[in-house]
Amino acid sequence: MRVTFTVNGRRQEADDVWEGESLLYVLRERMGLPGSKNACEQGECGSCTVRLDGVPVCACLVAAGQVQDREVVTVEGLADFAKERDTGAAGPGTDPGAAQRWQPRPAGPATELSPVQQAFVDAGAVQCGFCTPGLLVAADELLERNAQPTDADIREALSGNLCRCTGYEKILDAVRLAAARTGTEA
Amino acid sequence: MDFLRPATWEEALAAKAEHPTAVPIAGGTDVMVEINFDHRRPDVLLDLNRVVDLYEWEVGEETVRLGAAVPYTRVIEALGRELPGLALAARTVGSPQIRNRGSVGGNLGAASPAGDSHPPLLAAGAEVEAVSVRGTRLIPVEEFYTGVKRNALAPDELIRAVHIAKADGPQQFSKVGTRNAMVIAVCAFGLALHPATRTVRTGIGSAAPTPVRAGTAEEFLTAALEEEGLWDSGRTVPPSVARQFADLVAACASPIDDVRGSAAYRRHALRVMARRTLGWTWDEYLGNERSARCA
Q1: CATH number for region A78-101+111-185
Q2: Does the residue B128 lie in any domain?
């Protein structure tokens, strides 16, 4: 079947989608957006966390057909999404081609990061990096609805995202840092 | 495989009548796991995400009619006063991502003995609104669970809503697992005091082939509270009563040994949870806030 939906602000189509396929598979294998990670496929690890109509969900547990005509934001679109949210102006969304060509150390100018992404870099919250995209999406959503979260709020919001490297301390530091920076700007 | 996307409840019922083997999918937190792991290959998936009625709830005089697909997150945010036991249980479901998608209707459809909704539904008192093109019936929740992952739905029926009695007294929920988030219950227990009728009701999760009420324990405690005049005296429940209640709860379970825990551990844990939830609810009934002591 064909599934048409909005990914990172741009209308996208996927063809020949199998009816039992997950949104995660469509994003990774059909749209070339491998930022959302595929690990447990049972909603345990949160590494595939995306926003579906604004709500954080595990993309592995959403059937592809369920996203028809709906809006998905992935880690690839997080910087643009955060920028549009901050400026309040609807932007062009994220070019999927550019997202597919993304490199960690580009030759040209560095990719713009969202405040949460920058905080993860600055706090050293990334180790192997596998859980990072899901954590970024979840943390960004937390700060969107709660700009000054307590430690308990942060732990609760990230409780569905497993990290096997860091012991979480630096991840918590990163979210606190992002919140503090947002607070000083406001 | 076919993927059906009814836009309305009527269309959903017609589709289920035409395709009785269709598997309903709303949050996907159970169905998609089975598909991802190739444990299940339905001929037809019936997507209920578009049926807006299923995402609404109505607070009535005596009950809350909770739409089958209302996510746990909404239950926690909006229904903590009317359905305190269910809201407490909802907080323990999976993770934020799972609670944003999973629903009580899905828990009932899957009918896993470990579903977190079941003990509070049993303790509060609830009826499942099962609907087909043939009509609507209300199934008392204790009759809804018919076996491990089996329920009383006919092949052409869908769950429209759950009618849950509004709390008339304190309710509690307790769950044992290896961590605080993302845990399938080793076992769970729900308790509701019903001062209006001077009765108590319970629900046991994950310690029998289906979720069950601890009938003899309820009868014992209801009688003991009456005989000792405790509803009026403002006294605490005597330890001997609490102990016997806890023993009877454990005796009402029929747990098995499995990967999550042994039968003996489950009985032990039920005893502890029954005693604690009785203490918490009774404290609240007496007007004391739940103390900060360790759960």
Answers
A1: 1.10.150.120
A2: no
- Per-residue pLDDT of A97-151, as tens digits, reads 888 887 777 777 677 899 999 999 999 999 999 999 999 999 999 999 999 999 9
Residue B103 lies in a domain: no
User: Which residues of chain B lie closer than 8 angstroms to A138, CB-CB?
Assistant: 96-97
Contacts of B96 in chain A (CB under 8 A): 56, 138, 156-157, 159-160
Euclidean distance between CA atoms B285 and B290, whole angstroms? 10
Q: Which of B28, B101, B182 sits opposite A44 (nearest CB)?
A: B182
| pLDDT tens sequence across B151-186 | 999 999 999 999 999 999 999 999 999 887 778 889
Domain ranges in chain A are 3-77, 78-101+111-185
Q: Is residue B54 part of a domain?
A: no
Tokens 């029998």: give the residue: B208
| Chain A contact present for B41, CB below 8 A | yes
Task: Tell the CATH superfamily of the A3-77 domain.
Answer: Beta-grasp domain (3.10.20.30)
B29 contacts A61? CB cut-off 8 A: yes
pTM, two decimals, is 0.94
